[in-house]
């Protein structure tokens, strides 16, 4: 596989997540500093907003408002005009912390949750995918997913693809203009079906644990492999076409394509994701490399 040189774009984070290229800058959440940052192309850091409940997934509504998944209090927050407000409270439909999200052209937010108490060591459970409409209405659109996480929407807006981190797969649906989804199918099978019920056993069955991800112009997905310390480029069906390993001692937990030509791959890296290790440490880094095929779709 192709060897790509990584370089440090930014260091000193607690746990970077949900990278996005938007309006000529990188936008990144930092869980344990409770912040969303914007990074200029030269690496200069600008604080966008602080979110008490730990910010995760990021997206933008058609009116330009920033949407942030507030993990621990299980709310979607809307940031506009310097004010942070609650777009939707999803606590009644979440079995664990709120997670990553993607927003379609109509402003429908698709967001998953952990499905169980990951940080507390609880038994592994399934989770649902929720749709939050621009007016804040919450609808559970899919049940029974294995840790729905990084998600993308194809450039024509017709297909929603969601990574199941604890399921060895990407799952896809047809996406309509009103935000309804149908025709559930496996988009990429990355390993055998996961049948275990404890995290230790589940991890042992994972071949690729798709975390934060990004779509390219050839219809392939660059995915952070949360248990494999790498980013992988996955084709529909499940073939891994390329991988970028993390430096020794680091894992990769999210990635995004961006830059002026869309060919910069940014990786969110840290030694692990455990809150008791990361909350006080400042060991997370943003690494970048250049790839051949540019970004496409949303986010």
How would you describe the overall organization of this protein?
This protein has 299 residues and is mainly beta. It contains two helices and 24 strands. 4% of the residues lie in helices and 51% in strands. A four-stranded antiparallel sheet has the order 1-24-23-22, with no helix packed on it. The longest helix has 7 residues, at 199-205. The mean pLDDT is 94.
Brief summary of the model shown:
The protein has two helices and 24 strands.
Q: What is the helix content?
A: under 10%
Strand arrangement, major sheet: 1-24-23-22
User: End-to-end span in angstroms?
Assistant: 26 Å
Q: How many helices?
A: 2
The main pleated sheet reads as: 4 strands, antiparallel
Measured on Cα atoms, how large is the radius of gyration? 17 Å
What number of domains? 1
Estimate the global geometry from the Cα principal axes: globular
CATH H-level name... which superfamily?
Answer: TolB, C-terminal domain
Look at the structure and give the CATH class: Mainly Beta
The CATH topology annotation reads as Neuraminidase
Beta strands, count: 24
Show unreliable segments: none
Corresponding CATH architecture: 6 Propeller
Relative strand content: over 45%
Give the overall pLDDT as a whole number: 94
What structural class should be given to the helix and strand makeup? mainly beta
Order of helices and strands: EEEEEEEEEEEEEEEEEHEEEEEEHE
């Amino acid at each position: 596989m192709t060897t790509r040189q990584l370089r440090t774009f930014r260091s000193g984070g607690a746990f970077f997540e949900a990278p996005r290229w938007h309006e000529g800058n990188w936008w990144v959440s930092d869980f344990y500093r409770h912040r969303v940052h914007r990074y200029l192309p030269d690496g200069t850091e600008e604080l966008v907003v602080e979110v008490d409940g730990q910010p995760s997934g990021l997206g933008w509504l058609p009116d330009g408002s920033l949407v942030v998944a507030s993990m621990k209090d299980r709310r979607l927050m809307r940031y506009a005009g310097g004010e942070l407000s609650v777009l939707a409270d999803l606590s009644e439909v979440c079995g664990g912390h709120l997670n990553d999200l993607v927003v379609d052209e109509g402003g429908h937010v698709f967001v998953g949750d952990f499905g169980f108490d990951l940080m507390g060591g609880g038994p592994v459970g399934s989770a649902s995918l929720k749709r939050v409409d621009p007016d804040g209405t919450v609808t559970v659109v899919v049940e029974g997913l294995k840790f729905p996480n990084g998600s993308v929407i194809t450039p024509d807006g017709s297909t929603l693809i969601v990574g199941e981190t604890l399921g060895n797969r990407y799952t896809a649906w047809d996406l309509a203009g009103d935000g309804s989804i149908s025709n559930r199918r496996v988009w990429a099978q990355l390993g055998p079906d996961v049948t275990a019920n404890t995290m230790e056993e589940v991890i042992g069955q994972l071949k690729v644990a798709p975390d934060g991800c990004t779509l390219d112009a050839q219809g392939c997905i660059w995915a952070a492999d949360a248990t494999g310390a790498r980013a992988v480029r996955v084709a529909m069906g499940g073939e891994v076409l390329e991988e970028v390993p993390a430096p020794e001692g680091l894992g990769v937990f999210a990635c995004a394509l961006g830059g002026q030509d869309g060919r910069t791959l940014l990786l969110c890296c840290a030694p692990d994701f455990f809150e008791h290790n990361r909350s006080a440490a400042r060991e997370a880094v943003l690494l970048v490399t250049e790839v051949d095929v540019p970004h496409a779709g949303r986010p």
